[in-house]
Amino acid sequence: MSMTVRRLTRAATAGLVAAAALTAAAHSAEAADTLGSAAAGQGRYFGTAVAANHLGEADYAATLDREFSSVTPENEMKWDATEPSRGTFSFGSADRIVDHAQSQGMDVRGHTLVWHSQLPSWVGSLGASDLRTAMNDHINGLMGHYKGEIHSWDVVNEAFQDGGSGARRSSPFQDKLGNGFIEEAFRTARAADPAAKLCYNDYNTDGVNAKSNAVYDMVKDFKSRGVPIDCVGFQSHFNSNSPVPSDYRQNLQRFADLGVDVQITELDIEGSGSAQAADYTKVVEACLAVSRCTGMTVWGVTDKYSWRSSGTPLLFDGNYSEKPAYDAVLSALGGSGDPGDPGDPGDGTPSCTATYTRTADWSSGYNGQVTITAGGEPISSWTATVTLPAQQSVSALWNGTPAWSGNVMTVRPSWNGTLAAGASTGFGFTVAKNGSDAAPAIGTCTAS
Ligand code: G3I
Prior knowledge:
- The chain has helices at about 5-10, 15-30, 35-40, 60-65, 80, 90-105, 120-125, 130-145, 170-175, 180-190, 210-225, 250-255, 275-290, 325-330, and strands spanning about 45-50, 70-75, 105-115, 150-155, 195-200, 230-235, 235-240, 260-270, 295-300, 350-360, 365-375, 380-385, 395-400, 400-405, 410, 425-430, 440, 445.
- It is of the alpha/beta class.
- It is globular.
């Protein structure tokens, strides 16, 4: 099908799509017992990467349709799949995913327009002037085809080097067009589909480090010069070599403070059991603590099709059974699962979540408030940790009892340990900034 015809066809179906979305939203409101509906209750989407060739598998499609409110094509929108030879676009597999998502009222994240990997060889052989034209043609071709149908596009993916340098990664775009290729891609993307959120997406940028600092500087520069950027994606591929950073939330917050949304775009955490579940809880709590963290996407439905399948990094096992990590995510999102599942109502296990907000701010200090919410069981006590940036110090604390180890403050109840299932309390504190405006990191809440 030619691009022009397909574009018209997609636009003509928009009315049906809107109707499907309304049906799905009405369904979600009935019970927060799935990832998508629980996340919707928090004003977020909960998505997954999807591969077109698994959509025909009944259990895969049933799990996808039941649990998720957003999809990201795992490979089908990449350059090698969509423009294998210059000017010849092929959208078959990507269309299958977008059509499926729309039939279920799910949003679609576009992944990805300009990336050094999965790039057909013809792109690498172009000279600078031709490459610039080809890059812009590719953006216009893809975004034009899906105009109005993609909630966020990863416009540029993984343009920075790993390691301590904070330098740009070598790629045909970087090497031939120079630093300006990212800005040019975003400007072209804005014109191609003004309704889409435009994201920069990368990995190993999840905590504060040289690479995330370099991305931060770029986003700050873009915002100051009016280069159109709306969001930053944090891939969040974690394992024992690359654990969930303790300053994850703080890092998300500092990007949000630049005036962009943040999204967790490719989440997976290798491991199993309660340790994996606890790490997933940390990630969800971090996103929920940042008001501009608009949603989370896990990088696949089931362990068996994960790009890291031997590390079993996802929420459903190879038989599509919910793992403890699933229960932990659902619970952290405020949802409720089947009685008897760990962390669910009726399982007899006390649990809690801790969320942080800055409630007052002045030049030399700020007030923070941590809200403690019991899970599906009543609790008689809770413990939360607050890790402060090195320069900062706490000058007052109320409604809690602190104990200090270095810059980590462990807070237990003063009078407010007993909570009914789902009930909340909290503690507050005053911080002297001593030159650092960074936010504290809140650890996982534990309850008894
Ligand atoms: O489709 C072909 C198949 O025809 C062929 O027989 C087979 C032989 O190897 O390869 C198949 O293609 C594979 C493709 O996944 C689809 O399964 C590629 O070899 C394989 O390289 C490709 O891997 C993808 C990887 O990106 C490539 O860079 C993973 O599925 C995908 O999960 C992964 O996703 C990336 C994000 O896009 C960006 N961030 C990191 C993330 C994880 O690496």
